[in-house]
Design goal:
- By secondary structure, the chain is α+β, with helices and mostly antiparallel strands.
- Helix content is 42%, strand content 26%.
- The chain has a 5-stranded antiparallel beta sheet with strand order 1-2-3-4-5.
- A hairpin with a 2-residue loop joins strand 2 and strand 3.
- The protein starts with 10 loop residues before the first helix and ends with a helix.
């Protein structure tokens, strides 16, 4: 097979390179978005449910100790919440303050993918990686 190659040299190559860098920079800067209070509440409910589920599954606790941890799990303190992307595919970086109910081994910084629907509101799709958050355009 004969493959055709396109070679750009000189000034057109520089213009193309500058254009690509400018476009990528523009998209990177415009990727920041805000998450309203309803979206933040969905995330808090999800993390709270994870904490509650962890403490309900523990067998090393008495009922009184379990009750203390379950009450503490209801108050998840969010240190920071940032979002990137579009409303139909928003990637969120959530940093929680470790409290008494924070399960051991659970990271304090987590990344989630969410989407917004005008009919049903915010939905949490799945947990994502840090790389996918920072590459979100």
């Amino acid at each position: 097979m004969n493959a055709k190659t396109i070679r750009i040299k000189g000034l057109p190559a520089v213009v193309l390179a500058v254009g690509l860098v400018a476009f990528a920079g523009f998209r990177f800067l415009r990727a920041q978005t805000t998450l309203d209070d309803d979206g933040a509440d969905v995330l808090r409910q999800w993390v709270t449910a994870e904490y509650v589920r962890y403490h309900l599954d523990r067998t090393d606790l008495t009922d009184e100790e379990r009750a203390v941890f379950l009450l503490a799990a209801d108050t998840v303190d969010v240190a920071s919440l940032t979002a990137r992307g579009r409303p139909d595919r928003t990637l969120v970086r959530l940093t929680v303050v470790p409290g008494t109910a924070h399960p051991p081994g659970t990271p304090t910084v987590r990344y989630y993918q969410m989407h917004y629907s005008t009919v049903t509101g915010w939905h949490l799709d799945r947990e994502r990686t840090a790389l996918s958050y920072y590459l979100a355009f």
